[in-house]
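Appendix B, Record 12. Input sequence as logged:
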Amino acid sequence: MGLFSRGGEQRLTEELVMRALSTVQEPELGGDLVSRRMIKNVKIDGERVSFMVDLTTPACPLKDQIQNECIKAVQTIAGVAPENISIEFGSTVRPRGGVMDKAAVPGVSHVIAVAAGKGGVGKSTVSTNLAVALAQEGARVGLLDADVYGPSVPLMMGVSGQQPTAVDGPDGQPMIIPIEAHGIKMMSVGFMVEDDKPIIWRGPMVSQLLRQFLYQVNWAPLDYLIIDMPPGTGDVALTLAQSLQNVGLTGVVTVTTPQSVATLDVMRSIEMFKKVNVDLLGIVENMAYFVAPDTGKRYDIFGTGGAERLAQREGLPLLGQIPLGMSVRSGGDSGQPAVISDAPDAYAETFRQLARTLAARVSVMEYA
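Logged structural output:
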């Protein structure tokens, strides 16, 4: 029998509901939901109970588990029928903590860089689909294309040829209004140069441009700003990494393919970020394998296990493995990211799971 019976021996109260929910643990951060102040707006209406669970990210991968355990706790401890329990989910994405607060991009909770040790591993594909997947989960997301020598975000997001506008900011300085598509705010050097014109800039010029894109673009409010970094470990990549570290970068996600030549370059990239004291969030393996659409047979075109071995070596989580799919490629070419497609070889749910895993990783870093 619960804490109160159907006969009304003990009246249903907010206190009893909170006591029941205090037995539910936050599965990743530890501690119970009540102590972490994640339970809000408890309401009692006869035998009906409703409340909100304030998650640390709208892309929480364990939302279903939390909901089931809340229902079980209220049902078994408070004696309320499951059909009389109503749970709403909200989220409060905690801004990047620590000494970088003063330098943080105004209105942006987390700045996350997506990098690669070499070109051709699908870093921009991961960046765009990760950004859209986070938005699909309910997050407010921006995408900054910092790959100045190969800006592909305008094409991959279907906004080629568009140009951002500017307005006067509160301090009288011009503020750029980002281009928007698929629920994402975007900025790219590709909006400012012709497609067939070369971009011949050195590191300091690129760093200055990046700073302008961070502080003179009207990003706010954002939960996550995803930055598509230039590949490699050369002057430009190093300069950008140092610049981002100075503005409170939450961390970096590194993208690789399975083969050794790619993971070797990723190791160099990881070492570069370590040298400039940037937190490493994890590794994504792109083009992990190919499933033939006519036979269903799997082919490990670029080998297998490379990212997993690298993750174990570096003590980093393997955030996701994205298969090679024709719809992933065609979606990038057509400006329709794969994550919004229902084609089997678009692997939309795989991208969404990557987004949830990354969001959980950031939450653990900030709330633990």
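Confidence is low (pLDDT under 50) at residues 1-9, 98-102.
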